[in-house]
Amino acid sequence: MGPRTAAPAPAGGVLHYAEAALPGAAIGLAAGSFGAVTAALAGLGAGLTGAIAAGMGAPLALLGGVYGVLVGRGLVAPGAIGPAALFWVVGFPAARLAEEAFVAAAVGHGAVLREPLPSFLLFQAMLSLGFAIGFLWLHERLAPRWFRRIRSRNPVAAALSSHYAPPPGRPRGS
């Protein structure tokens, strides 16, 4: 298998890119909900659990969608871990910081962080590689199915769908 390269950006409108970004946004939203599940299992109240879900789900959904647009525009090669890791080493700490600020505001707490900002961001950046691997793994399994489903009406999805097609003479799934 040769090196992965980003495909040239297909012609498409804003709605085409938004539709192609849906798998990444859905993965981000689902990932953000795991914090709420953990909070609920820990016995936190419904208000705090909801704040955690919204505070983490919204930024991760937005960033997951941005990642999908970058892939659709040909700026990031589909399935490449390096660009995904670089994207999430910035995006994941930013999403966590947004979540901490949202939760602090929702519960009326003045301090957003209990530790110094550089320490917080560095720790979140270290965690981001694991998140990037999980995000990319899910994206590579969900997005091609979505692209095949909408490719007849979406040129961005059609171009991405052709990237995931099996090589000539090789049946799908082998």
- Poorly predicted residue ranges: none
What share of residues is helical? over 70%
Largest sheet: none
Please tell me how large the radius of gyration is. Answer: 18 Å
**Helix and strand sequence:** HHHHHH
What average pLDDT do the residues reach? 89
Tell me the β content: under 5%
Tertiary shape: elongated
- What is the helix tally? 6
DSSP strand count:
0
What is the terminal separation in angstroms?
Answer: 14 Å
> What structural class do the secondary elements suggest?
mainly alpha
Q: What is the structure about, briefly put?
A:
This protein is mainly alpha-helical.
Describe the protein's topology.
Blueprint: H1 14-20, H2 22-41, H3 46-72, H4 81-107, H5 117-150, H6 155-164
Helix pairs in contact: 2-3, 2-5, 3-4, 4-5, 5-6
Task: Give your account of this protein's structure.
72% of the residues lie in helices and 0% in strands. The protein has 174 residues and is mainly alpha-helical. α2 packs antiparallel against α3, α3 packs antiparallel against α4 and α4 packs across α5. The radius of gyration is 18 Å and the shape is elongated. The model has no long low-confidence stretch (mean pLDDT 89).
